[in-house]
Design a protein that fits this description.
Order of helices and strands: HEEHEHEHEHHEEHEEHEHHEH
Strand content: 5-15%
CATH superfamily of the largest domain: Nitrogenase molybdenum iron protein domain
Number of domains: 2
Structural class: alpha/beta
CATH topology of the largest domain: Rossmann fold
CATH architecture of the largest domain: 3-Layer(aba) Sandwich
Shape: globular
Largest sheet: 6 strands, mixed
Distance between the termini: 34 Å
Helix content: 25-40%
Radius of gyration: 20 Å
Amino acid sequence: MKIKSFVILLSIIVSLGIVGAVLFNSAEPAKTQTTQQYSRIISLAPNITEILYALSLEEKIIGVTRYCKYPPEAMKKKKIGGYLDPNFEEIVAALPELVITFPEQIQPVNHFARLGIKTLTVKHLTIEDILESIMIIGQSCGVPEKAERLIGQLKARIKTIEEQTKNLEKQRVLVCVERNTTAGSFDAVYIAGRDGFYSKMIELAGGVNVYTGRIKFPKVGHEGIIAMNPDVIIDVVSDIESRHLDAEQLREQWGNIPETEAVKKKQVYIFSENYIAIPGPRFILTLEEIAKAIHPEMELMTIE
């Protein structure tokens, strides 16, 4: 999987850098939105689909992308193309009242505008973006109370993690987001830098990002990893099944860098769950897993 496609799957957490902007047709601020009762909604991203289901709006969804696979029921919804290549004919034929998109889908949004189709655009670059988009979608689709409740639950779980880790020793963490998994080579490894998503979760989980530069997803090599010498390595391989990879073999590959504290202490973790690379409402599961990886001695108590 190339880094370009990985970034797209993250929907797309390095494509824009301003937090909190919301576009509703002609970029109206969120505060000017009015509560609607849309009955026919199309989602153009897996993250958006997850929010709609989390807000119990699934009966109003009339179309999703081919990448929308969670919850499993979403796969039964009508497919209207991909993330960046929606099928306009299918969308128009579905007679949507609202299409929910991300900012990088500007070309489809412009096309929808010419067709007279209303769009709502939210962002998921950061945790703050995710929480805000839940509220915006909830308000725009007539379920603000459910949105507030969901946000409250997520914030409570974040607070629990922060409280349980604040007095623990901070570990230096490297998050690998892409590498050559077949060769086991570490000459070209893309890691989470100042991306605003993984970097924030490392902080919330009581760790420190081993990368101190300003690049969002820097490319490093074997020697660079040795120089950073992380205490914990988290290797994100979200499509492990489709690529027919084995988690234990992937973990063993890191043995090729025995100089790092993470390898010496056997603190190398393979994250392969399908929500890891989708910054939607299930980010909380990723955050909890990161906290457990950084502090394996801690029995994390979560709030449902």
